[in-house]
Amino acid sequence: MGGNERTVSPSSPDSIDTSNETSKPHDWRESYVSATLIGLAIGVLLCVLNVLVLFRTGTSFGGSALVAALGAALLRVTGALSWQALFVVFSIASSGYVATAALDTGIGAVVLDGGDLPAWGILVLLAMASNAVGIGLGGLVARTLVVAESLPYPTLKPAITLMASLSTRAGQEGNRLGRTLPVAAAVGAACALGVALWGHEATPELFGSGTHVALALSPLLYGVGFLIGPRACAWLAVGSAYTVVVWFLQDRSSAQPADYTAHLSYPWVLAAGVGLILGYSLAAIARVRGPLLRALRGDFANRLIGGHARWWAVAALVVLALFAALYPPVLRYLGFGVLGLALLVVVTVFLTRAGGEIGLVPLAPALYFSVVVFAVAGADSATAVLVASTICCAAIAAVYFTYSAKVVHDRPETLTEPPRRLTGWTQLVGGLAGAAIGVLVIAVLTRAGVIGGGAFPAPVATAVRFVDATVRGSSDYPATVALAMAITGPLGVGLAFTSAMPTMIGLGVLLPPAYSLTLAAGGLTQWLLTRRNPGRRSATEIVASGLIIGEGLITVAVLVVREVLR
C-alpha cells in the first residue's frame, strides 16, 4: 500500500510543518473547525443521496476517493488544506454517508410489509446508538486488521493516494502520479459513462443462457483485481466456480430460473459463504490473540472492569435473574439479546475482514443471514428485520472505522501519528449527524407513502422481505442452514492453516459471478504485465487507482442525474 504514498515537504505551502504545530495553536484550531464543517456537509449530502438512490435503484455508492477529492477542493478554497485537515474531512464524511446503511433497508422492508414501526425519535436514537457501538467495535478490531495482519484495503488505496498527493508538493513520484492517474481516471470514467448510456452492466453469458458466467463491464472491479493481486483473484474464481455450479443446479431443479436474490438466499450459498469467512476469521483471531488481548487489557478495559464497575455488573445480573424468575417471558427477550450480541460480533468480523481483504463489503449477504438467524429463532417479522438491520448498521460503522485507521497507518512518512481519539471523535461526529439526517429522510419518504411505488420501488427491501418469507415458509430451511454452517465453518478454520485464502473463496461464493470473474480478470492481467518485469507493479497500481476513481465519480454523477434529479 505504501508504494504510491507521497511525503510532505516541510516547505510546502499547503502542508503543516509538524515541528511547529504547537507554536501555532490558533491556525491549528481554525483548520480543524473548517475541516469538521466540510466533513459534515459532504457526509450529510452523500447520506441523503444514498438513501434516495437505495430506495430508487437498490444500489448505493461508496465514495472514499470522491470524499478525498471534494474535501481537498473545499479545503483549498478555505485556505486550510493539509493532510491532517483532509483526514478529518475524510473520517467525518465517510462515517456520515453510511450512517443509515442497512437500517434504511430494514425500515423500508417493515413499511412494505405493513408492520408497525417504532416512533421516529426512537429510530433516530437506534441509528445513533448502532453507529456508536460500531465505532467501539471498530476500535477493537482495527489494530489487528490494519497493523498485525496488514490487510491491503484495495478500494481504499485510491483515496489514500489522492489525500497524500493533493495535500503535498509534487516530487518525482508525484509527477508520475500526476501524469498517469488523470489519464487512467479519464479512461475509467469514459468506460463507465459508455456502460451507463448502453444500459447493460455485464456481457451476455459467455457459455449460453443459464450458465451465469459473464463479465461485469466495470473498470472499478477490473482495477480492484489489480490491487488485490493474482493469488487472491484465483481463489475468488474458485468460489465463483462453486456458486455458478450451485446456481445451475438450482435452475435445473425449479420450474423457472432463479434470480440472484433467490440464489443468494439458498442455504448452500448464503450459509456456506458466511461460514467459510467466519471460520477463517476465528482462526485468524486466534493467531493474533496476543496483540488483541493486550488491547483488551489496556487501561480503559482495566478501568471498565475494575473498582465498583464489577459490582454494578453483578447487581444488574441479579436483578435480571429476579425479573426472569417473576416474569418468564423475560427469558425470551434475554435470549434474543444474547443472540443479537453474538450475531453482532459475527457480522462485524465478517464485514471488516471482507472490507480489508477485498474492499467490497458484502452487506446484502450479511443482512440476509442476520434476518435468517432471527427468523429461525422465532422472532416476528418486523423484529427480525429491524434488529438484523440495526446489527448490520453497527457492523458497517465498524468497517469505516477500520478504513480511517488504515488511512492513518498509511499517512505520509513525515507526519506523526494523529492521536487515536481523533479517529474516534471524527467518526462519531459524522455517524451521529448522518444517522439523524438519514432517518429524517426515510421518515419523509414513508409519510409521503412513496416507498414501494413507481418512484421508489425499494428493491433491496423487497428482497429482504422475500428472504424472511422464504425462511418462515420452509420447515427444512433452518436445518439446511445449520448443516451448511457446520460443514463450512470448520472448513474455513482448517483452510486458515494452509496456503488457501478462505475469505476470497467465501466472497466468490457470495458475490455475483460476473463481479468475481471481472476481479479475477484484473488479477490475471496484472500477473501477465508484471511476471517478467516486476518494476511495472507501481505503474499498474496507479492505473488501477485511476480506473476506480473514474468509475466512482461517474457512478455518483449518473445516479444523481438519472435517479434523483429526474
UniProtKB/TrEMBL annotation:
Pfam families: OPT
Membrane topology value: Multi-pass membrane protein
Annotated spans, Disordered: 1-26
Membrane-spanning parts: 32-55, 61-78, 85-111, 117-142, 181-200, 206-225, 232-249, 269-288, 309-327, 333-351, 358-377, 383-403, 424-444, 479-498, 504-530, 542-561
MF annotations from Gene Ontology: oligopeptide transmembrane transporter activity
Subcellular location(s) of the protein: Membrane
One GO CC annotation: membrane
Keyword Membrane annotated: yes
Keywords annotated in UniProt: Membrane, Transmembrane, Transmembrane helix, Transport
Major localisation: membrane
Polar residues composition bias: residue spans: 1-22
Name of protein: OPT family oligopeptide transporter
